Amino acid sequence: MQALVTRVKSFVRSEDGPTATEYAVMLALIIIVALAGITLLGTKVNAIFTNVEGALSTGA
To answer: C-alpha distances in angstroms, 21 versus 3, 28, 49, 53?
Structure first.
């Protein structure tokens, strides 16, 4: 049990914990921005394809 307490204390004192947390927050923000961009881009691309489809003849 003492070894576990010692390892937890050394982990809290080291820079690995905060660094991992910072990377996790940064990754979450990148994912949110990417999803927002894909959503906006997808809506615009869908509108463009709808306009092109309406401008084409039926092809019969």
So the answer is: 24, 11, 42, 47
